[in-house]
Amino acid sequence: MSKHRPNRLAETLKEEISQMILVELKDPRIGFVTVTSVDVANDLAHAKVYVSVMGNEEETKASLDALNRAAGFIRSEIGKRIRLRHAPAIVFVNDPSIQHGAHIAKLLRDVGAADTADEDESHE
């Protein structure tokens, strides 16, 4: 099977699931969630949705739990919106890349602040 179809489906799923999380899911446990990517199996039967959740570890776990509980609803809505014979089974997985990037940026800012403080002390 061509690799183009799973990639196209992954992009479509990313857009549709992002929209559904933003507009249709009313679960208060779902915090600020961003769909970062979607991997679809070659047989189109399974989709792994990577999400980034802003918040602490407890909020992340609660949001992922709520999303995985809503996966059946999301799958049925995907089946209605996208013309597929079978909608893929959906699993939500935490993608820590945004938090990791924010941590690296903070470390770089701290190093930059320490460098400017060292320069100020050496000029005095």
Give an overview of the whole structure.
The chain is an alpha+beta fold. It has a single domain, classed as GMP Synthetase, Chain A, domain 3 (2-Layer Sandwich). Helices cover 57% and strands 19% of the residues. The chain contains 4 helices and 3 strands, in the order αββααβα. The protein has helices spanning 4-23, 57-69, 71-81, 97-123; strands at residues 32-40, 46-54, 89-94. β1 and β2 (46-54) form a beta hairpin. It starts with a helix and ends with a helix.
**What is the CATH architecture assignment?**
2-Layer Sandwich
Number of helices: 4
The order of strands across the largest sheet is 1-2-3
| Percent in strands | 15-25%
CATH class: Alpha Beta
Which fold name fills CATH's third level, the topology? Answer: GMP Synthetase, Chain A, domain 3
Shape: elongated
State the share of residues found in helices, binned by percent.
55-70%
N-to-C CA distance: 69 Å
| Overall radius of gyration | 20 Å
Assembly form of the protein: single chain
Structural category: alpha+beta
Number of strands: 3
Low-confidence stretches: none
List descriptors:
3 strands, elongated, 124 residues, 19% strand, GMP Synthetase, Chain A, domain 3, three-stranded mixed sheet, cytoplasm
Write a compact overview of the structure shown.
With 124 residues, the protein is an alpha+beta fold.
